Amino acid sequence: MNATINTPKKTGEKVAQGMMENVLAQFNSAAHHIDLHGDIQKILKITNNEIIVHFPVKMDNGSVEVFTGYRVQHNNALGPYKGGLRYHPTVDIDAARALAMWMTWKTSLTGLPFGGGKGGIQLDPTNYSTSELERITRRFTYALGDNIGPEHDIPAPDVNTNSQTMAWMADTFMSTRLPAKRSLNQHVVTGKPDGIGGLEGRDRATGYGVFLTIKKFLAKQNQILKNKTFIVQGFGNVGYWTAKFLEEEGALLVAVQDASASLYNPNGIEVDSLKNYISINDNSVGGFPRAEIIDKENFFALNCDLIIPAALGNQITEENASKIQAKLIAEGANGPINNEGEKILLSNNISIIPDILCNSGGVIASYFEWLQNRNGEVWQLEETLTKLNHKLEKSFNKVYAYAQEESIDMRKAAYCIAIKRIEKAYIQRGIFP
Ligand SMILES: NC(=O)C1=CN([C@@H]2O[C@H](COP(=O)(O)OP(=O)(O)OC[C@H]3O[C@@H](n4cnc5c(N)ncnc54)[C@H](OP(=O)(O)O)[C@@H]3O)[C@@H](O)[C@H]2O)C=CC1
Ligand SMILES: O=C(O)CCC(=O)C(=O)O
């Protein structure tokens, strides 16, 4: 039997580069603004735990590959670690650290009783069959052992993972507990299918939240979504659902980019016909007949009202920011704009709804799923969406008002609010005797 070791490498791709620098620069700027206690700065600049596991998996052809999985637990001052798992070639320890930090700010901003964590496996899932991915996921869960748990660290879907991945994780985790405890562990992950404790609406929650924050932002400017044009990078969970809700409100999708191609049609791309197309075309938008293919370098420069990056990090940078014509960017993805890019956008009066607010609908719905499992309840879709809207309204209004009061951008405002809540927890706990 052959054994292949998938040695983790620094990916060198722009996606993972500088993510830590970005998140730390964002943190430093807010910490300075609120004059955050120096000891708390020290605590929040590092991660609590970094778990790296190597685990063997048998491939369909009988060979064995050894994979490397990551789970970074940044901070749990407000509650158990919470955040997604990503399967992508760009996953490495730096990316996991940065993404875990973003989760801490996000769960704090939204007022959830959670901290922040993130992880994943450095692999390209298109190279593996479904049964191989199932075995990889189960072995990863087994290797993580008690480093995850329903009251300790609760993973969820992210790039290239979904409700099926979460079902395999839940099943593996629960079946390795003592029989009498198995059913008490269903909330070890969220984003599960509805048949095994998943929340109706978790699938669309992130996109719904992105849509709501855009709508709320436009309302503050006395504008509406009807007839606004928008472009979306990424047509997966977040990109699709965001586009779907925006279209339902009368906005027009004019361009879409995924890893395979960039599509453009100034007269509009119908969201569900593109979705139907990708479902029979290897999940790729390339070749969709009712749009032209454009050069990917020109994508963000297209003439439109709104841009929704909903793929990977570091997509809008000093290299392309000055060409952007849209007046609003809503960050469906985590960290899609780097700091240099952001400076250019802000100096060109382009507004940004920051990731930790914009895409927080996902983790809010995950919290609802966690509560549902913990309390032995079954929630209905309407209830989920109403409660999600209510929670997002509260965080949106807080961020918007604070940004206005302090004359700062919305990202800095969101960070200040998030960090102050963690600071309060540390002070009340008495970390400084
Ligand atoms: N899922 C969730 O609930 C949440 C997700 N997020 C963030 O949203 C983003 C998207 O996540 P999600 O929708 O779940 O992931 P998915 O895996 O469902 O979709 C990812 C999409 O991004 C596209 N993509 C990948 N690489 C590139 C590239 N180089 N250029 C253009 N497009 C690319 C993929 O295209 P292809 O299929 O061709 O590879 C796919 O369409 C991530 O940043 C994630 O962290 C944030 C909050 C919650
Ligand atoms: O639902 C969750 O727990 C986290 C989702 C996530 O990874 C994110 O918000 O970036």
Automatic annotation (TrEMBL):
Biological source species: Mesonia aestuariivivens
InterPro entries (UniProt xref): Glu/Leu/Phe/Val/Trp_DH_C (IPR006096), Glu/Leu/Phe/Val/Trp_DH_dimer (IPR006097), Glu/Leu/Phe/Val_DH_AS (IPR033524), Glu_DH (IPR014362), NAD_bind_Glu_DH (IPR033922)
Family to which this protein belongs: Belongs to the Glu/Leu/Phe/Val dehydrogenases family.
Designated name of the protein: Glutamate dehydrogenase
SMART domains hit by this protein: ELFV_dehydrog
UniProt keywords, alphabetically: Oxidoreductase
Domain Glutamate/phenylalanine/leucine/valine/L-tryptophan dehydrogenase C-terminal: 199-430
Biological classification of the source: Bacteria, Pseudomonadati, Bacteroidota, Flavobacteriia, Flavobacteriales
A Pfam family: ELFV_dehydrog
